[in-house]
Amino acid sequence: MSTQPDLLYSEDEEALRSAVRDLLTDHCAAPAVLARIEGDEPHDRALWKNLAESMGLAGLLVPEERGGQGASHREAAVVLEELGRAVAPVPYLTSAVIATEALLACVGSEAETLLSALASGRTVGALTVPLSATPGREFTDVRATDSSLTGRVTGVADAAFADVFLVPTPDGLFAVDASADGVTVAPQTSFDPTRPLATVTFEAAAGRLLADTAAPAVRRALRAGAGLLASEQLGLADWLLTETVRYTRERHQFNRPVGSFQALKHRLAQLWLEVVNARATARNAADALATGSDDTDVAVAVAQAYTAPVAVHVAEEALQLHGGIGMTWEHPIHLYLKRAKSSAIALGTVGRHREELAELVDLRAP
Amino acid sequence: MSLDAARLRTLTQEFLAAHPVATTPREEFLSARFDAGLAWVHYPEGLGGLDAPRALQAVVDAELEAAGAPDNDPRRNGIGLGMAAPTVLRYGTDEQKRRFLKPLWVGQEIWCQLFSEPGAGSDLAALGTRAVREGDDWIVNGQKVWTSGAHNSRFAILIARTDPDVPKHRGITYFVCDMTDPGVEVRPLRQITGEAEFNEVFLTDVRIPDAHRLGETGDGWKVAQTTLNNERVAIGGMRIPREGGLIGIVADTWRERPELRTHDLHQRLMTLWVEAEVARLTGERLRQQLVAGHPGPEGAGMKLGFARLNQQISGLELELLGEEGLLYDDWTMRRPEIVDFAGRDAGYRYLRAKGNSIEGGTSEVLLNIVAERVLGLPPEPRTDKDVAWKDLSR
């Protein structure tokens, strides 16, 4: 384990980035995302097939001998940066990171089978916890009686797209097929339509036991999710800044580009500083997760505590600096603002992460 | 054999064997180190270096530190090492390089910077100190301000106006000024902390030989850019541990003094702790980019971040101390050799940190630089560009 984290991008990571960006440029343009979220199927099935199956990206975190690509959180973070730049409506964070990490914490043939299915991208998994769940929480909404599951979980991200649910209960972690008897998925109208939520109800649904205690798997999954969400937030903020700089250079008022006014320049420079900082802390979290560093808990908490408000701030400023156009439905900024704000609640709010950090670094509250 | 890390490590060990740390006097050791090319390895041979990649200096420093060798106390001559030396290296004549670089590096001669003036701070190019040619000399008259270390310095880098009839950036020339020359008067400048860390420098008919000019007459602004760019590099390249800055002082107080804790202060402490840690990581990322040979534009923003953090953290510290924060040490007219935020009281830190967003370029100017040079936003409208310096309003 290296003591100094590698905060740069490797050449392979940059190559991965440009491959993903090319795909998203061709297949995930903002007008298409806008049209999609107003239809019946908010998720982009074709894009997921390209990313997960053709490019093999769903299996980045899974070792090769278990059916994956044997890459690491550093590569997955780069994929998430690009998906964030496009507010892509695909279940990468939920299936390829969170559900996959939960399975990586389990042993047994059931978990192995599911793991390689998720890694192939042909099966999509969802951990049935609310998107807002923090790593330390207990999950008791669903009860198991002899592998028969009953209960209801609201606010499950990407549940409508999932083939299999990983369900934490006080009696262990279970896998339940979305198509099984007694499973109902009711889409909710979500603040962030590009990462839609649903209520999942189990009525005596048949579950397959993955682990006797759910807590370690859930904690691992949510910690990795929170750490890598920072990279998605970074990508989102980066796109917003680039786009806003471009717009303010082109938009003329008072016979000048509005980007030449110092009041705007200083705000944009400030956003740039925040994005630069977000990049360092998101890379640090990804590297800590990848290397299994002792510092991972701190790195993840710092990354979320810093990056979540930055993404929101950049989105809010981008909207304001676009003026009236920023308020229109046709301009994609609202998709980014909604993703940014919902992500600030996802996987633990800033306050929750600061509280956890206070314990970790021995700076206790009064 | 090409100069890689292993070879450089061997060279350093051979040097240590020839100059035992225990028995070699400090200045003799430093002088020999310069002659061996181990002072700044990226400088040319004969001028303290070995024409090696800059990143390899870390190899030498690590070996020497492990051996307990004396260092040249870089903070004591920060202006000389960080700003004067790279400028002399780039623009100096061979004679100037031979004369100035070694005593500068060894620390026998301290340098200061005569740039800012009462009427030319952020608008540095508007400066009015005049240098008029007289035979082989220049006669210099004017007033400089915010000159840290002038009272300890042997030499100064100086910019002065040599042609008032052309636009301001074109009529400036860059000199090395001998601070012991007649006509150079250093007066302490008392600041809000009470101490006199800076000086005003009055220049009255100071004679500077033309041989002490750096670069061409009228090219001083271009030469000064080298100096100023190096100032920002020097600020960005440091490696600090977690809680290495002011946040560490406040965090320790928090841990040791539970009776001072309140919920509001805790919220602010954790916010700033996170921001300080993130700033540290950004600095580390910048350093890794430099080592990899791909310096990023992040350096332009580091100073902005540190200035704001220092101010917020030192403000929090005073409130955390409560009643104790109402008291202040006596710094009246003290003249420090270096600025050291640690080892002083919280009130001093709070007041001194106010300068962090002014010195070395105000935060407002730096934000403009980021906006224009990094983000490519249109420049501020300029009304001074094609006007002769003498016709500018001031």
Please give a quick description of this structure:
With about 375 residues, chain A is α+β, with helices and mostly antiparallel strands. Chain A folds into three domains: about 10-90 and about 115-120, Butyryl-Coa Dehydrogenase, subunit A, domain 1 (Orthogonal Bundle), CATH 1.10.540; about 125-215, Butyryl-CoA Dehydrogenase, subunit A, domain 2 (Beta Barrel), CATH 2.40.110.10; about 215-360, Butyryl-CoA Dehydrogenase, subunit A, domain 3 (Up-down Bundle). Chain A is about 50% helix and about 15% strand.
Highlighted features:
heterodimer; A: 366 residues; alpha+beta; Butyryl-Coa Dehydrogenase, subunit A, domain 1; Butyryl-CoA Dehydrogenase, subunit A, domain 2; Butyryl-CoA Dehydrogenase, subunit A, domain 3; 4-stranded antiparallel beta sheet; 11 helices; 10 strands; 52% helix; B: 394 residues; 3 domains; 4-stranded mixed beta sheet; 8 strands; 13% strand; globular
| Name of the CATH first level of the largest domain in chain A | Mainly Alpha
CATH C-level class of the largest domain in chain B is: Mainly Alpha
CATH fold group of the largest domain in chain A: Butyryl-CoA Dehydrogenase, subunit A, domain 3
**How many strand elements of chain B?**
8
| SS content category of chain B | alpha+beta
End-to-end distance of chain B, in Å?
Answer: 59 Å
Strand order of the largest sheet of chain A: 1-4-5-8
The secondary-structure element order of chain B is: HHHHHEEEEEEEEHHHHHH
Per DSSP E runs of 2 or more residues, the count of β-strands of chain A stands at: 10
How many individual domains of chain A?
3
Approximate shape of chain A: globular
Low-confidence stretches of chain B: none
The end-to-end distance of chain A, rounded to whole angstroms, is: 35 Å
Show unreliable segments of chain A: none
Strand order across the biggest sheet of chain B? Answer: 1-4-5-8
Average pLDDT of chain B, rounded to a whole number, is 92
What is the SS-derived class of chain A? alpha+beta
